[in-house]
Write a structure and sequence with these properties.
This protein is an alpha+beta fold. Helix content is 36%, strand content 15%. The chain has a two-stranded antiparallel sheet. Strand 6 and strand 7 form a beta hairpin. Helix 3 crosses helix 4 and helix 8 crosses helix 10.
Amino acid sequence: AHTATAMSESPTAQPFREDAILKRAVDVSIAQLRTFCRHYRHAGDPEGFSKEQVSTVEQRRLEFSGPDEGGMVWLNGVFDAEGGAVIRTALEPLARRDGTLDGRCRDRRLADALVELAGHALDSGSLPDRASQRAHLQITAPVETVLGLPGSPAADMEFALPISGDSVRRISCDCNVTRILLGPESAVVDVGRSRRVVSGSTRRALNVRDGGCRWPGCDRQASWTAAHHVVHWSQGGPTDLSNLVLLCYRHHFLVHEGGWQLIRTDQGEVLTVPPRVEIDPFARGPAD
């Protein structure tokens, strides 16, 4: 019906022939018939077909709602056929199950994939600069929070509600750090130079040694990982190869916020120890 209406209203279309579509409908499913109708319409009205496709691009929308009291954010989007295909093509490889112990449902894996894709774009520096600076997450945290001292406040992050100290230590494993000294009434007394926690040469050596995420069974390449401190630098852990290991976004999360422990043996083997009560924040919801 949509094909008949579109072709009858288009001044560039050839006459619509219902019998051709009805004959096809006898032997195919609804989805296959929809695809056939698209081919039929393009053959009979390529100009009108193209104009409609352009109009669907103009209807693209992506809305952000929140954060709510718990910090949750909602996305609501509408995309044309090509735009949706581009997004899905980018997310599907990142949304695959990560081994037999990955109990995440498909919706959860797709959501994690979107976050991972955006994080990779930030890490790679491929996004346009903002305010003459490379686009990046900005977190402001007291020293006490980074150290994990009792009674310390949460950390402030741009575009989000305050986040936990565990999240701060995960993100700060491989980041730029700027020291800011505050005086009375929070007046800025001094701002130190930004420095890279893991230097470029150390990161290159780490990429060569590990080759990618070292979590057993994970296949993320080095460019999709962060340099994790086995003993965090805020706790006195050195930033050298013996105390560093590459982890992808999900497994880095499991170590810091999920309660898992990561152990490097003297032989360089990486062992994972689950929490006493296993809580996988990436596995909520029924498995599909």
